[in-house]
Design brief:
The protein is mostly helical. It has one domain. Helices cover 70% and strands 2% of the residues. It contains 13 helices and 2 strands, in the order H-H-H-H-H-H-E-E-H-H-H-H-H-H-H. It has a two-stranded antiparallel ribbon with strand order 1-2. Helix 1 runs parallel beside helix 4. The longest helix is centred in the middle third of the chain and has 36 residues. It is globular.
Length: 388
Amino acid sequence: MSFTLLVVFAVVAAIFVGINIGGSSTGVAFGPSVGSKLVSKTGAAGLMTVFALLGGWTLGRNVIATMGGKIVPSSEFTMMASVIILFFIGLSLLISNLSGVPASTSMTAVGAIAGLGVATETIRWSVMGKIMSWWLVAPAVAFLAGGLIGRYLYTHLDEKFKIDKSDGKMFEFRFSPVPIKLVDGTSRGEFVSSVLVIVIACYMAFSAGASNVANAVAPLVSSPTTPVTMNMGILLAVGAMSIGGFTIARKTLDTVGEGITDMPLLAALIVSTVSASIITILSKMGIPASLAISATMCITGLGWGRASRTVKVKDAIQGEAPPMKTAALKSDENSKKIGEESEDDIPDKQLFDPDIIHHVVTFWILTPVISAVCSYSVFQGLQYVGVM
């Protein structure tokens, strides 16, 4: 197979991966905004493009450097190896979409690269150990942050910063020194909180771009024979993510937007802020990690922390464990002090089934393992027949 044809295959594979990343990331980032009718689907895709480019152009370079030369030397990324790795990333996205369980693209990509490194005996285990340790720490931090906020802050935030939206337009533009005027019936609090929803969505888009551009193009731009530069690769990845945002994300936005009716908007904002902050910090460090896993663990921690208000710390030490009731995120009319609430004060309708969370987390763990094993097998086979 000619070098030119391999480059074409690699570019097509990178675009496929980017489109799928854009479709899922846009829904995760802008679901609350679209669900509360603050931003249109087209507007969400446009904002996703801008802020994903900003994240990819700045912090995304660090993640590309890690995946493209620190786990295994960049010299190992021949164009054929890049095509194979991108194929495994794209395959994992396809399988996860068909199964309805979102796979961690970052973890799958790292697994495929690790398979190459083990097969060629060039893997740097110190780097892999650092990455994997953060894969354990990040979800734990997300759960802990959610738990602390849920237990000590959530009810107070819910009382002071209820985010309700009135019907119709909130503001109108005009040609004057103050270009925005609130329409009748719109409070300043509603306007400020609504702007906050959009700002946090853009923050999530930034973190998604910083973390995910590497998944689409790191193998391609790191190959010593590639004609694709770092800047070209980032633009290619974000362009593909934008296509996904304007197309397949529309269905994702419907799904996430409808789900916001079950999860209060305040809870969604807390989860978005915590998970995006974790991924932004890890991207700055050059660590590829999963935004979806951090978000899921923060949701779980937030619900558990809110439910734990029925039990004081001293009682918990004595063995009185709080119930795991995720519907605790529903607002209550009269908040009480920790230990004074009873289970009757917490709604019993489940926002999500803990068994489903167990299934999703298990799938996230298995996906990179399967990716690594399959990648190793393929590269070992290619070495055996003398192709590599």
